[in-house]
Backbone:
């Protein structure tokens, strides 16, 4: 039987383990923490289920096969949610994406509408700042995007964000429809089980050799061997879900990431955020958190209290690849140098902003070619 080693047991490690087992591979999954599931695992605080960040299933309709795959293992419930953005200047919670009715309520609405009227239908952008000014004008950019992005990525200027924004920008029409029905064309869902996606991890790892609390310290690419503690394991295939620079001992430099600190707070009220509001963005200059989430909305947990979490950008952990050109190029250099028998998958593994649906699609595709 062919032997695979998987580094990391987050959503991608588990998904790829399952695909390999279905093709009768022998799979050993090595995870540095004491529990498998990574960031998508549901934990409990005072009986309230929560994950690190919202982690709802959100994907374009073309990723329906991912939804159907997951729904067979973990029954999913479609959700209609509203995202709000706190506008400190007017002490007002506006819809995000931006809704035309909310703009009318902002103190500088005249200026905003005049900027929108004068925006060219199409313009060219080279970075995040030019992209958003081209879409919604300077004032809306400053209110909704500028400081949020600076904080989320811990950068000094939004002109640094130059990957994926080199585009012809089309002026963005403001939302006008019912608030809980956009963005359209997306599948938006959450597991119905109290413990969220946890059953998926159990099912995915059935029949695998699971090594928990074992941190891979190095990978010998020529010998297809991983090293941890005083042990080593050899395989026919290695699947890594961690940052690709690690696999090369950072020989061309370390890839940049941003992390988050999560603060859990239980409040003595049944519901903290309005109906259908699952989380709120904080885009103002002098705030610390990027997002506040009320988990009951996702989990339907019954309690007289409610759990909210605050996400505060931090450099203590690696969660979001800093997708600027220099870093993406460096990641590609590492990825293109990998031998055929070492695959790098998942969010850190591909150094791409992939979500749960993308990871499932990657896994299903991988199985077809096995
Ligand atoms: C805050 C936040 C909120 C998000 N919200 C959503 C959302 O609402 N919807 C959505 O679809 N997606 C969301 N995502 C994205 C999605 O959840 C991730 O893309 C996905 O979970 C990544 O899974 P992964 O397996 O690639 O990585 P991870 O879950 O990070 O797993 C990597 C695993 O590798 C282990 N590991 C690391 N180093 C080693 C080592 N040396 N040896 C052994 N093990 C190691 C880690 O402990 C971890 O368990 C969110 C992401 C974040 C960060």
Residues:
């Amino acid at each position: 039987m062919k032997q695979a080693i998987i580094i990391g047991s987050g959503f991608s490690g588990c998904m790829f383990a399952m695909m390999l087992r279905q093709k009768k591979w022998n799979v050993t999954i090595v995870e540095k923490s004491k529990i498998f599931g990574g960031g998508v695992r549901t934990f409990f605080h005072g009986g309230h289920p929560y994950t690190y960040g919202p982690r709802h299933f959100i994907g374009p309709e073309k990723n329906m096969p991912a939804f159907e795959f997951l729904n067979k293992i973990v029954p999913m419930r479609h959700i209609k949610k509203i995202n709000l953005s706190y506008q400190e200047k007017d002490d007002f919670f506006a819809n995000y994406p931006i809704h035309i009715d909310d703009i009318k309520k902002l103190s500088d609405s005249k200026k905003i509408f005049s900027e929108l009227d004068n925006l060219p239908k199409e313009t060219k952008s080279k970075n995040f700042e030019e992209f958003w000014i081209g879409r919604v004008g300077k004032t809306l950019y400053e209110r909704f995007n500028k400081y949020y992005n600076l904080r989320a990525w811990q950068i000094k200027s939004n002109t640094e964000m130059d990957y994926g924004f080199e585009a012809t920008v089309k002026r963005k029409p403001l939302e006008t429809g019912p608030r809980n029905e956009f963005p359209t064309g997306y599948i938006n869902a959450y597991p119905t089980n109290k413990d969220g996606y946890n059953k998926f991890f159990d099912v995915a790892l059935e029949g695998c050799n699971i090594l928990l609390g074992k941190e891979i310290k190095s990978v010998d690419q020529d010998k297809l061997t991983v090293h941890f503690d005083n042990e080593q394991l050899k395989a026919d295939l290695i699947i890594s879900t961690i940052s690709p620079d690690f696999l090369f001992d950072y020989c061309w430099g370390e890839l940049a990431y941003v992390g988050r600190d999560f603060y859990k707070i239980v409040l003595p009220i049944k519901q903290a955020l309005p109906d259908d509001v699952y989380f709120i963005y904080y885009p103002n200059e002098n705030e610390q958190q990027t997002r506040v989430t009320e988990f009951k909305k996702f989990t339907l947990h019954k309690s007289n209290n409610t759990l909210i979490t605050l996400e505060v950008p931090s450099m203590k952990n690696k969660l979001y690849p800093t997708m600027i050109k220099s870093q993406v190029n460096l990641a590609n250099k590492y990825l293109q140098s990998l031998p055929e028998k070492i695959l790098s998958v998942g969010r850190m593994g591909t150094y791409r902003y992939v979500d749960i649906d993308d990871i499932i699609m990657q896994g299903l595709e991988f199985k077809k070619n096995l």
In short: Residues 7-13, 30-33, 38-40, 52-58, 215-216, 241-242, 260, 319, 346-348, 354-357, 359 surround flavin-adenine dinucleotide (CB under 6 Å). The domain at 1-41+197-256+322-370 is CATH 3.40.50.720 (Rossmann fold). The longest strand covers residues 257-267. The CA atoms of residues 90 and 107 lie 7 Å apart.
